Amino acid sequence: AQTFDAVGRTVAGRGGRGVADFRVPVRWRVTTAGQVERSVNGGATWLPVTIDVTRRLAAGSAPYQDVCWLVGSAGAVYRTTNGTDFTVVRFPETVDLIAVEATDADRVRVTAVDGRIFTTTDGGLTWSR
């Protein structure tokens, strides 16, 4: 499981649990079951985020409190710009994605399981290797 705060730092945790830190109130996590949860109180409590996910999620990055990118198997990419509603972002391949680093709502870098890196600067409309 991966827990990350609203400035994109990964927070150590087991089973999707992170350490509460009220200096960074918004946190996200992808649980070992592939579910997404959000905390608005530094990780003290977590609420599930409803996403119509058809593929397993592996990682996420949140550069701002309301912006979060998620990636996973078979080219799965999801993004929210309001902190609640995720949309599917088209990805050019069906390769498994294992890491994501977001700068903002438009610029992101994703890493495929085979080590290739893809970037977008327009919210996923176009991708470069």
Overview of this protein structure:
By secondary structure, the protein is mainly beta. Helices cover 0% and strands 40% of the residues. It has no helices and twelve strands. The protein has a five-stranded antiparallel beta sheet with strand order 2-1-3-4-5, with no helix packed on it.
The topology string of helices and strands comes to: EEEEEEEEEEEE
Overall shape: it is globular
**SSE class:** mainly beta
Assembly status: single chain
Q: Could you tell me the strand content as a percent range?
A: 35-45%
Strand tally is 12
> Kindly, what is the distance between the CA atoms of the first and last residues, rounded to a whole number of angstroms?
27 Å
Low-pLDDT sequence parts: 11-22
Mean pLDDT: 82
Q: What percent of residues adopt helix (DSSP H or I)?
A: under 10%
Strand arrangement, largest sheet?
Answer: 2-1-3-4-5
Number of helices: 0
Largest sheet: 5 strands, antiparallel
Estimated radius of gyration? 13 Å
Topology at a glance:
Layout: E1 2-5, E2 10-11, E3 27-30, E4 36-39, E5 47-48, E6 57-64, E7 67-72, E8 77-80, E9 87-88, E10 97-102, E11 108-112, E12 117-120
Antiparallel strand pairs: 1-2, 1-3, 3-4, 4-5, 6-7, 7-8, 8-9, 10-11, 11-12
